[in-house]
# Entry
Amino acid sequence: MLHLPFALALASSPVAEPTALLASQPTLAASELALFVSAAAPTLVADADAPFSYTYLEVGAVSFDVDVIDDEADVHYGRASIELLGFLYVFGGHSNLSIDYQNTDTDLIELGAGAHVNVVPKLDLFGEVGWLYADVSSDLTALDDTTNGYEVFGGARWMVLPWSGGGLELNGGLGYVDLENQVSSDDKTTFWEVGVRVHVLEVPSVGATYSKLEDDDQVSAGVRLSF
# Structure
């Protein structure tokens, strides 16, 4: 269908002129296509410079040294994340913690959302907030309970050594947890962490993280499939 200005011109022009007018339309279409491609080009370049996926599945294990009871907890976890609109993501996770102290077991569920931005090529900043629900089973009555709380975290991801289909990622950040009856030296905990992730190919990667939760130490390792 012709646009309205072209229809008016055809109705009031001599017979020979419509041919010239119609012939000019491919030129306009080509110029519009060129403008579209040039406008889209920065986005394509920006995506190429942002090598991190926020849609993934991950499973792993954690060794948690709890200072206040001088004991170590074993943790197994799973986490899933889905990216939305190119800069947001939602996530959910489940972890199970077992410790010899008073035969204590904890099932922890986390649901939350976050946002990320590519500030320079190969470097992302991100922040997230999550709701926590803990079901604690223990021989110690004071611990045997269900509770909920929240966690906030902000950090960075840097692809320090990229290669074809993968790369070496360094990451880290600061966080805060407010959760009663958690197996920790304090219910309200500020923590920091540093980690490394090896992206073997575009989909699989393996990572390790060291976390310091005030008086407690935590080391984790996991396998991730990114999409």
In short: Confidence is low (pLDDT under 50) at residues 2-31, 33-48. Helices lie at 4-12, 17-23, 25-48. Strands lie at 56-66, 71-84, 88-99, 104-120, 123-137, 145-163, 166-178, 188-199, 204-213, 216-226.
